[in-house]
Structure formats: structure tokens, C-alpha cells
Amino acid sequence: MNYGILTLLQWLIILFQLGTTVTANTESILISIPYDILIHRHLHLYNETIPSISLNNTYMQMETIQIPAMKEDQQVVELKHLQTDASYQLKLSWSAINPIDISNIHWEVAQPRLGMEDDDYPPLFLIFDYDTTLLNNKVGGVSLNIAVVQTKFKIPVDLFPLIAYICLIATGVWYLKDWILKQILYNAISL
Amino acid sequence: MESPPCRTVKWSLLRITGIFLVVRTLQYLLIFLTPSNQFDTSTQLLLDELLTNSQDQYKFWNRNIWNKLLSWDAVYFIKGMVGSPDRDVPEYEHEWAFSLIWIQLVRLISRSNSGTIELYRALYVGVLMENILFYLSAVILFFLTWKTFTQGSIHYSRGSAMKLSLLSSTLFILSSGSGFFTGLYSEPLSSFCTFLGMFLRESSIYYPSNGSYGYTFDWYSLPLYSFGSCLCFSLACLNRSNCLLLGIYYVYDLCHLLRSKERNWYKIILFPIISGSIMGGLYVRQQYWVPFNEFCPDNGGWCQDILFKFVTKQSLYQFIQKKYWNVGLFQYWTLNNLPNFIIGLPTFIILNISCVYFLRVYPMRHLYATCIITLSFSFIILLVAHFQIINRVCSFLPLHLWYIADRLVKRWSLNGEKNHKQLNGDDTIVKLYLYWLVIWVPIQTILFAFFLPPA
């Protein structure tokens, strides 16, 4: 692999890291859960009505939740089966056809439920503010996709196939670039 | 002006068609092979909301090709195209930023007998029209290049002009925004109208045969100029507001006619003044008068600062850009946008170098207006816009394509194949830009299909 491809790879990693921070109608955060996180538990966020998302035996999971229209409020989502000493990407996507604003995305750890004190997984919660006041009144609210993805080297693992694909194409094109240009451009002017 | 030799034209058009088909096939193949689980997962939500039967989104071809084309701005376009029976204007304020002309054009063609517009039908029609307009733009650019480089102060041989025309069109097909033009973007409509308008304007200009730099307009060319070019430039401008810069042609022609010895006031009024006024008037109507009647005076914000009757301090478009996309002077100049500046930099450099080339190195007087438009465009993008969009929105400009094509033709005719490795400064820039283009176009196509930045 030559220098050009290595530079391209480095650039792609930087781009993905920036890209995972914010896009037009996707907001995301990268979280690292320390191994001693349970020491810091202090919140009581449990409520039977809050939605949850579980990462049991999988590297990524996505759930669709509904938030009410014409309202400014906070939403809490329970994150189940996230391990300590690991990193994850929490990603929120909504359709750009609905003008909503999502902000202040963060996570908290809570007191374990009664009887679950010895559970291996820390009780985590995703919390964010939403503003749907610009939205016309929609019965049933507006849909929001929430995804939890494991990360390696600060890159969400669901991006690995894409990175491999781009690297493959870029490498192929890099080695064939002179041939491609000759076929498309130089052959035209040499005739 | 010489006519291009018929046999060579046929061969060139066949070659352009072949290259277009091969490049587009490869791009759609890249899209097909891009993983289906997009980074931004909102396309599924969009389809759930807009489809009559939401299960249609899981059909094989929809899942593997068509759904991937509904990324970034295509979301707004498809919403407008599908529309709603009880609404013929955008639902939300910010949707006014997306070409209503392009949306209405696709709606007109994709409407079924019952009057409804199904999402996938609108998508198929929109993508087909996008490809047709992109292809036709390349064809018109071929004839525009031939006309531009075989008349006036420019003395290209027929062979060189033909190579230049063919290369320009080929480069346009490979242009830095072509990944986006696999979908529903409005740029190809503006490219088509701009190149056609430039061709009609160029056709209406009379260059005296004494080799001087002057030019004038014959009366018989009045319809070409004041109807043809004006209609095309106006449509381009109504479709994408950055094409307002095409009005510089009329200002340039006005200054030229005012400074000429002839100074025919009838021509001055009926050619540039009438054309420029119509174009400017339509722009004011679209950007100020229609939104003012739609939103003001009830709406706050931009409605409050009225300069004159319906003319507000900010147009609706400026207001939307600032409010929803944080567009404004130096607003984009932040550290986290550095990769986006790097992505747009090659195109910015090539646009500016092409201006220097045609203004200083090989000065071509009748390209001066195009140089002014190109310079103005690139600096507006640098200072005000999301910089990386330069790759996409520069598609209505032909100057950098002419610069690259000219360098390739000159280098080839001077050195031939055996010595083509001896490069001067311009040739090195062109070579690096072409390498970047060959790498960037497939990556951009994949990133677009995966709904991942940069947009």
C-alpha cells in the first residue's frame, strides 16, 4: 500500500470521526463506559413508560421511538446490555422532512433496579432535549431512530464494511488511474 | 465562424454518449454495492411517512439502489415531488430553499391519470430526467466549446477545437459533483439552461474579421439573445439562485456596447438592458414578491426589515440559509470544518487558476465575462457558503473544464505521446486535479449512497 492510499485512509478516519459527531439530520455521540462506572451511580431515572434499547448479543441495535409534535421537552431512553470498559456510538436520526431540533445529547448512569444489584450490565440512560414546536400537528408524533453501535478505534463497527469498500475502490482506482485517464481523455486527443 | 465537420461531430457525440453510459453504469454499480444500512438511518422514516404501502421500500431494487438515492437534499426534493393534494406550496418555510421549478417539472411528468403522485414513480422520473439533463448538458457544452473557440480573437484549428470540445464534455461527465447527480439534485437543470443560454448568447455575437477584440450584435440575432439566452439564464437562476451571476454577461455586454464607437442606443436597450431587466425582474419576483405575499406581514424576522414595498433587507432564501443552515460571512470558518475545506480545495484552486490562465497567461477577451462570473462564484462560496458544496454547485461553469482541456490539447500537440511526461506548472496542476477527480468521483458516489458526510 503506497503513501497516497495511507493518506487517504488517515483522512477517511478523521472524516468518519467528524461525521459521527453531527450531520444534517443525524446527531450522535461517542461514549466510553469506564470499568468502575457503578461507583458513580446516583440517578433515579426509571419509569415504566420510557422506551429502551438492548444490545444483547449484537454489536448494533436500532429502535424507532415516537416523540410528540409541537412540544419542547426532554426524552430518556434506557440503554440495556452495554458493557463496562467499552465504547459505543449513540446515534439519533430523524427525517429532514420534519423540522425538529435535537440537542443536549448525553448519557447518565443510574441506581440498579431493586433485585438487580449484581447484574453485570450498568443501568445506563440516553437523555436528550427535543423541540418539535415548528412541526405541524401530527397525530402520533414524529418518528426518531435511535441506534447504539459498538466502536473499535473510535469508529463505529457498522462503518467497517464501508471503509473496506472505499479502500478497495480507492486502491483499485489509484493503480488504474493512468489507464482510466488514457482511455477517457488521452485517446480522444490522440485521434 | 466555421461549422464543425459533420462526420467528426457524429463520432464525437457517439464517444460522449459511450463515456456517459459507461461512467453512469459504473456509478450505479458502486451505489448498488454500497452497504444498505446507511449511516443516516432516516430514509426508512421518510419512506414510512411518504409511501402509501410502506412495504414497497423492502423490494430488492428499491432497497439496493433507489432508496440510497434519497440522501441529503434529495429528501426535500422527493417530499415536494410527492406533495399533497391539499397543498401546492411547500409545507415548511425552509423547504422554499429547494428549487420549486425542478420539483414542479418532475411532478408534471410523474403525475398519474388519477392526479396522485406515487413516491417511487416520482423518484424514477426524477432520476431519469436528471440523467437526461446531465447528458444533454454535456452535448450542449460540446457545441458551446466549439463555437467559443473558433470565433472572435481565438484562432484554434478545426482539429484542436474539436479535441477541446470533446475533452470539455468528457470532463463535464466526470465532474466533481457527478456523484450527487445520480439522484434528484437540481444542478443538471441549471447546467443545461446555462450552457444553452451561453451558446445562444455566443451565437448572437458578431466578431469583425479584422482580428480586433471588439464585438457587436446583429439585429437578426435579437431573438437568440433577448429571448433565447434570457429565457435560459432566467430559468437557470430561478432553479438555482447562484446562477444569478449569469447576469454579469448582460452587465458586461452593456459596458462593452456603451464603450464601443458605434454606441447604438436601440441595441443597448433591446439587447443587454431588456434581457438583464427580465432576468433580474424574475429573480426579484421569485425571491421577494412571492414570499412576501405568502408569509408577510404576519411572519416576524425577515418580514420586518422592509426596504421598499415588498423588497425586504434579506430575501427569503438568504433568511432560510442563515437560520436553518448557518450560512453567512465566515460562519463556516471553524476548525471542525477543515476536512470540508480540504475536500473543496482542488475545485476552488482549479476554478481560480483557470481564471488567471484566460485572463493573464493566454488572455482571451471574450472569455472575460465568464472569468468574472467564475471568480465571483468561487469567492462567494469561500466566504459565505458551506465550502465543500463548491464541488457540486460549480457544475454550471465551463471555464475550468476549458482550462484543463486546453492544457491537455496544447501539451499533446507540443510534445506528443513520447514526451508527455515533461510537464510545466499548469500541466502539473491539471494532472494532479485529474488524479484527484478520478479518485474523488467514486468515493463521493459511495459516500452519497451511504448518506455519510460530506454533502
Automatic annotation (TrEMBL), chain A:
InterPro entries xrefs: GPI_ManTrfase_II_coact_Pga1
Signal peptide positions on this chain: 1-24
UniProtKB keywords: Membrane, Signal, Transmembrane, Transmembrane helix
GO CC list: endoplasmic reticulum membrane; mannosyltransferase complex
GO MF annotation: an example: mannosyltransferase activity
Keyword Signal attributed: yes
Name of the protein: Uncharacterized protein
Provenance organism: Naumovozyma castellii (Yeast)
Biological classification of the source: Eukaryota, Fungi, Dikarya, Ascomycota, Saccharomycotina
TrEMBL record, chain B:
Superkingdom: Eukaryota
Localization (cell): Endoplasmic reticulum membrane
Protein topology in the membrane: Multi-pass membrane protein
UniProt-listed InterPro entries: PIG-V/Gpi18
Molecular function terms from GO: dol-P-Man:Man(1)GlcN-acyl-PI alpha-1,6-mannosyltransferase activity
TM region(s), chain numbering: 12-33, 122-144, 164-185, 224-252, 264-284, 341-359, 366-389, 433-452
Entry's Gene Ontology BP terms: GPI anchor biosynthetic process
Keyword field: Endoplasmic reticulum, Glycosyltransferase, GPI-anchor biosynthesis, Membrane, Transferase, Transmembrane, Transmembrane helix
Root EC class: transferase
EC number, UniProt record: 2.4.1.-
Pathway where this protein functions: Glycolipid biosynthesis; glycosylphosphatidylinositol-anchor biosynthesis
Any one of the GO CC terms: endoplasmic reticulum membrane
Pfam hit, one: Mannosyl_trans2
Main function: Mannosyltransferase involved in glycosylphosphatidylinositol-anchor biosynthesis.
Family that this chain belongs to: Belongs to the PIGV family.
PANTHER family named among the record's database cross-references: GPI MANNOSYLTRANSFERASE 2
Protein name, UniProt field: GPI mannosyltransferase 2
Organism annotation: Naumovozyma castellii
